[in-house]
Structure formats: structure tokens, C-alpha cells
């Protein structure tokens, strides 16, 4: 054993002592994955638990927690799962610790803003599954007012245990700045370029370019004025045409043309509605979130164009087409023109050659720094507490590593996915397969399972040999395995609390070798978490099912009693 190896082993032991002293959840500490320490330096084979660790394991729940420390062994933020307190992970969470430390402990606000904007930029650049893996772990740590995040008690992090509640609230506010900006980006551009959104019209893009600017930097507002006058002018001409047509005698029309116009007008009306409903919805969301309820010049013309003009064209378009008397081709041209008008403001950014991603991301960085300045001005801890309560920060959320797997997003090398999985049963049997978004068949209410071993009962990487899934729509299915890998380690049937969950990683072979879930105890918190942390989109069917369970308590087997984690 070299002196360097001996030093690292000593550091690991020291870290575990710090966790035992300062972790507030009172769970026995188990360390399995010493960072960069050869396995022959550990007094037990880390493929197996010791007898004491096996006993300690029975007292640990499945909530994923974070431990933020000033003590560093190539890492300062430790991910704590059911299986170990220094779980293997591919994501670097150290930015969170550095951000908090600069803002709250050393009060180096220049460093804090630099770290914050770097964290924001890194999260924006991440591939979606890698981002979601990061976000679900952090969300689990920030759950319930960050009570699942512990700090080392020392002068570099939190000076006294009595300061823990306010330290957690500061962490919530600091991370809220990052997640709010990620949410804004998702609204405008989609989540890491994988969601098919089109909410970045010329008005919102120019708002990003000009907010807080002066002088010539305000020039792009000209494009907003141009778009507004063009769309308003075209709509006005259509209204004038309707009025003019009502005052003149109609030409004789063939019955074929009359019938055809009714069909074309109806189809055009339906298509106009398909355009109008998302436009109106996104504009109302922009008013509440993107513009923050502030009715500035750009916001007002955005509302006029994408609500008033868009809805006016739905009705006016039907009337214009139905009154057409110059022939079939004129009806087609009128319909095409009417469908084009609402999309002018959406097409202008591309026509002008604007790089939407660069403009929006620069805007978010500027806004994040302004938000941090507001945080810096909140000298009174009561203001921080009030903000946490008013904004509803610390949404209840769980990330469960059912098997002891590495935290990571998509990995082609490991053939690993991190995304929602559809769970269903047909006449051929059970099906579990990945989905890009959350459907009603992804939503689960409860999962029960038994661990199985592969030749070793004290393995640190147990597999799942039996699993029963209760879906939110009251369906259920079982997955059983036969053979050597179906032998349970013990008769204990594990479960998570009744709630709303999705499977985010599963690998099935001769047993379930990898299984990870995330979710909340209530449908309301689940939906809030998906939106707040910019995770996966929910289909209409999934939202409808969640809405049904928001109105009533989620029960299992006719009982509202909630079992304990691991019970």
C-alpha cells in the first residue's frame, strides 16, 4: 500500500465519520464505492455487504439524498441511495456545493454568479436524458423544503446545526434561479432541443434581445412593429371584405361550388382552430411566466396578434370562404392566405437569420444574474423563508434507486436509457418499453418487489426477481422469474409509498438487473415537479388521469393507509 493509497482510505473513513455526525436523517451509514481506491485496500470485498451492513440496510429507506461537504475526495456532493451513502454517479454535482458556498458562506458574489451561469450553461448543453437524471436526483434532495439534503457542519459550509433550516431555504432559492431559467428555455425552445416546441415568435425573441438594453440596442423592436402592422393590416382588409360582400349582390354559383365551399370552409375552420388553440395557450403562458405579468409594449402587441387577431381570423376565415363566388381556385388561395397570417410572427426569426438558441441562452444568463442580485439584497432570513413559502419551493419528489446502479443518463456503450417507460399488458403478456413522454400507461401507483441474488445472498448489487406493478388506472401486472436468479434473498416484500411514479430505468434479462423510479406522493406534486424541473412532457391522457386523482385520494386495496418505504 502506497502512502497515497493509505491517505485516500483514511479520507474515506473520515468522510463516513462526518456523515454519521452531521447527516440529519438518522440512517445507518454504508460506504461501498470508495473513490479511486483499489478494492484490495478495503477490508472486505465490496461486491458483498458485511453482516453489520446487511442489518443496517434493513433500517434504510429508498429516498435519494444529498450530502454537501467541504471535505473532498474528488467530489464534494455525495449521492446517498438505499444501497450506499457514496453511490456511483456520472453527473458532477459539485457545482451545487460551490454555488452555495460562494453565495452563502464566503459571500463572494462574483464567484457565485460565475458558477451559477456555468451551471445553467452546462444544464442547457446536456443531452435530455443526462439532464433529467441530474434533475431528478437534485429534486429528490430538495424535496420537502430540502430536508433530504444534509450539510457538513463546519465553518466552510454550515456553522451550526441550528442553521440547517435556513441553509436549506437558501439552497432552495439559489437553485430556483437556475430551474426557473431552464423552465423559460423549455417554454421557448423545448428541452435540450428534443421537445418539438414553437413558442419563440418574433415578439418573444426581440424581448430577449432588448430587455434592459438602451439606445440602438432597442432597434430590433422595429421587426415587432412590422409584424404587428402587417398582420393587423391583413386582418383588417379581410374584415372590410366581409363588410363589402354583405352590401353587394352575389353572383350565381353552381351547386357544386356552393357545396365545395362549405366543405372547404369547415376544414379551414378546423385547421385554424388547431393553429389558434396552441397560440392562445402559449401566449397566456408567456404572459404569466415569460413576461411575468408585466404589460409592456412587446407583451401587448404579442397578446393582440396571437389572441385577438388569431381568434378573429378563425371566424372571419370561415365567412370569407363561404361567401366566395369567383371560383374554386380563389377559394383555395383565400384559405391558404388566411392560414398564413397567424404564422407570420413565428416565421420572421428564421427569415431574419436569428440564432434563437444563442439569443435565448444569453438572455437567460442575464436574467439569472439579475435574479441573483435580488437574492443578494434579501439580507433578512425571513425574506428568504417568505419566498420559499410563497413560491412553493421544495416540491415533494422521490428518486428511487431500487437496484444499486450508476446514476447516469443515456449511455450507448452501456445500452442504458433514462426516460419514462410504458407499462402495459396485452394478450401476449406484459410489455415494458421506453417512451419519449409520459403517457397514461407510464403512470404507476405502487410497486412491490423482492430481491434475488446471483449465487451470493449478501451481494451489494441485488437484482429483482419478482415485481408487481399497480398502475394509476387501476390495472396491475406481475413480472416473475424462474431458475437460479428467482431465489429471493429473503421473504421480505419491499414497496414504495402509494403515490404517482414512473419507471425511468429498467433492464430485464434473466432477472431485473437495473431498476430506477421517480415520482411523488400525490398527483399534484408529481405534475408540479415535471413542469418545475423541466422533465418530461405529459400527454393529454396522462394529464386527465392525474386530474382525476387530484380530486380524490389515491388509495390501494380500498384503504387510504400509506405503507412505510421498505415495508
Low-pLDDT runs: 35-45, 553-567
Q: Give the overall silhouette.
A: globular
Give the number of helices. Answer: 16
Sheet with the most strands: spatial strand order: 9-8-7-10
Give the termini separation: 43 Å
Q: What does the radius of gyration come to?
A: 28 Å
Number of domains: 3
The proportion of residues forming helix, as a percent range, comes to 40-55%
Strand content: 5-15%
Biggest β-sheet strands, sense, barrel:
4 strands, antiparallel
Overall mean pLDDT: 85
What class do helices, strands and sheet pairing give?
alpha+beta
Q: What does this molecule look like?
A:
Helix content is 48%, strand content 12%. It has 16 helices and 12 strands. It has helices spanning 3-22, 51-57, 94-105, 109-125, 128-146, 164-189, 202-210, 221-245, 255-290, 297-322, 328-340, 344-351, 356-377, 381-391, 523-532, 540-550, and strands at residues 65-68, 77-80, 149-151, 398-401, 421-426, 429-434, 444-452, 463-471, 476-480, 494-495, 500-508, 512-520. The protein has a 4-stranded antiparallel sheet, with no helix packed on it. The chain has a 3-stranded mixed sheet with strand order 2-1-3. Strand 5 (421-426) and strand 6 form a beta hairpin. Helix 6 crosses helix 14 (381-391) and helix 9 (255-290) packs parallel to helix 11 (328-340). The longest helix is centred in the middle third of the chain and has 36 residues, at 255-290. It starts with a helix and ends in a 17-residue tail after the last helix. Mean pLDDT is 85; it is low at 35-45 and 553-567.
